Amino acid sequence: MPTFNARAETVAEKPFFRDAFRRSRCLLPASGYYEWLETGDGKQPYYFSRRDGQPLTFAGVYDTWHERAANRPIQSCAIVITEPNNFAAEVHDRMPVILESLDFDRWMNGTPEEAAMLMKPAPEDVLVKRAVSKRVNSSRTPKDDPTLIDEVRLAA
Length: 156
Known about the structure:
The protein is of the alpha+beta class. The protein has four helices and eight strands.
């Protein structure tokens, strides 16, 4: 069962993530991420990125487990998500845990208690967002299309 997100509130306790949180934390770099806002015209995607133009770094956990049906090891990872800050909450009720470079070592090598202290919403001034094309929602859209993060003007 693919699981892409691990809730900050339960990642240290839930059996699915508990061991990975203790021993296999990772950093996941990204240029940005999408969230969708339910509107009268369907789901409107928004692209979130850093205000300063630098890459984002998400807190993550990873693990290798054995898939019995295919008798093979599976490597997987999940982004740790938390409550949103006020800015992200305008679009969605969760957001990724975004780490600053000074926190990388503590996330990777600190105790679970130290890592848990980092699982909080990003400060209000870290992100920018822009409405993007609904083509993001289509499986037919090429995944490497650079225009998928271009801002679109929404009807008033």
